[in-house]
Amino acid sequence: MINNRLIECVPNFSEGRDMEKIKQITDEIESVEGVMLLDVDPGRDTNRTVVTFVGDPESVCEAAFRAVRKAAQVIDMSKHSGAHPRMGATDVCPLVPVAGLTMEETAEYARSLARRIGEELSLPVYCYESAAFEEKRRNLASVRAGEYEGLRKKLEDPAWKPDFGPARFDAGAGAVIVGARDFLVAFNINLNTTSTRRANAIAFDVRERGREKREGNPITGKVVRDADGNPEMIPGSLKAVKAIGWYIPEYGFAQISMNLTNIGVTPVHTAFDEVCRKAGERGVRVTGSELVGLIPLKSMLDAGRYFLHLQQRSAGVSDEELIRTAVRSMGLSELKPFNPQEKIIEYILADKKRAKLVDLSLASFVWETSSDSPAPGGGSVAAAMGAMGAALGTMVANLSGHKRGWDDRWEEFATWAERGAEMQKRLLELVDEDTEAYNGILKAFEMPKKSDEEKAARAAAVEAATLHASLVPLTVMKEAFKVFELLQEMTMKGNPNSVTDGAVGVLAVRACIAGAFLNVKINAKGLKDRSRAAILTEEAQAIDDAAAKLEEEIMTRVSGQFAI
Q: Which of 146, 180, 214 is the last residue before a domain boundary?
């Protein structure tokens, strides 16, 4: 799915046992064009299903409305019971900006959706988080206080008049809470206890809101209140975290159920380790964790880096290895296998239909290059050589960090390895970008050219595509040139047993730059804008000259070590 404006919707429905009812709801979502259903996560004991879908704002709002309508038809709240707090058939329906929208714009979409639900379905609707109309309704827990059982009385209170829809109790559907919020990660941490009380104690230790302050005994003492009669709170140790403890009969143990409302403030790995620490203080062990719904790729990569650094190891490894490290370290596969392709949002949104050159095996890439198709060609191969050069430099850095007697230098080499991995990743992206740029020129030449308008449009498209095809190999040159710093450092200060590996990396990067330079020149030659062509060629020439000089310096020094 390629869209410049994306919203994610994560409605929570009060049904986690009847799969037929859940399917009726998700069928409504999938009936809307422009929406992709990403995840359906039912919970038997919570009797709640978390659904995640994404698309353009208008399509997402339409799908959300249809889902809310269907949930009101098939779920009877008067017969509902479950471990999770809830107030309606569709308990909460948050919209989350993913790309191309501000939070303010997302909040307006949420309010528009809430208005439609209230008016067309005649259900009481409250707006929360960034869509809230008043401060006391920002917090979901405040809006949901009293839950379904207290809803009739709540609707009679003028202070809790719904934002949209009638202040009338609907026994079957309850109320709907619609909002706009940042990306939230629902993260449950498993404990080796069946005690809900102990789980709650740990939850209160870590959650931002903390626990009520009491006189004397922290459990049975009288609650301390402020001048307005509100309980004073002892804050927990983690910001932007909501948490409760509960017992899950299906699993046979208790969990800390957490909502990480700002993973930039408290990442998943920080939350996990803090719960481990607080649980240990209370004689409880963490055995693993589970992710409810989806998580951004960055969160998993950051977690992998964090746990590797705790071991004083380099995080200059593949994304796959970082993810494996995160999964193992947090026990994310304790309850069921953690499949990155199903749980990481970027992997789900990736265009699976478009095959990438970098996803081919080495042999397949070589044979694909040797076929009678002009692409992939020299440009893609040049970028691949640059990536291999960066990989060799990264390898030397990783080996150096593990060298016996160099333990005090692990952080120095880990930093270089991580920089090298980023260089390698960018050059791999350019392998496909070069082929796409060439295909863009072919596509432009295929445009119709019968009328004067068509001829002008075709000429403009060809010029734009040719410029892009010139800029991509120039970018390859710039990115590859950065690798020389890594290789120079590794051949001078890295593990001496791997100096020739670094030297081969130098040769690969030099070949990459020289090859990409040829592509800049041949593509720039086709530009009608000759002044732009000259500027591009001059810039590329300067990079090529500097690369040649660096190659000679490094190789002369390396070769001098083997003089006989």
A: 180
Q: Which pLDDT tens digit goes with each residue over 225-283?
A: 888 888 888 999 999 999 999 999 989 999 999 999 888 899 999 999 999 999 999 99
- Peptide bond between residue 473 and the one before it cis (omega within 30 degrees of 0): no
Yes or no: say if 6 and 99 are a contact pair by the CB < 8 Å rule: yes
The pair of structure tokens assigned to 405 is: 């007697």
Residues taking part in catalysis: 84, 434
Enter the pTM of the model: 0.74
- Whether residues 321 and 462 share a domain: the answer is no
Residue pair 402/417 in contact (Cβ under 8 Å)? The answer is no
CB 105 within 8 A of CB 206: no
Same domain for 78 and 170? yes
Q: How many whole angstroms separate alpha carbon 492 and alpha carbon 502?
A: 9
Do 261 and 293 sit in the same domain of this protein? yes
In angstroms, the CA 338 to CA 331 distance is 9
Q: Report the distance separating Cα 386 and Cα 392, nearest Å.
A: 10
- Per the structure, how many domains does the chain have? 3
pLDDT of 1 reads: 38
Burial (CB count <10 Å: 0-12, 13-18, 19+), residue 115: middle
Cα separations in angstroms, 180 against 7, 129, 132, 243, 503: 10, 6, 8, 20, 53
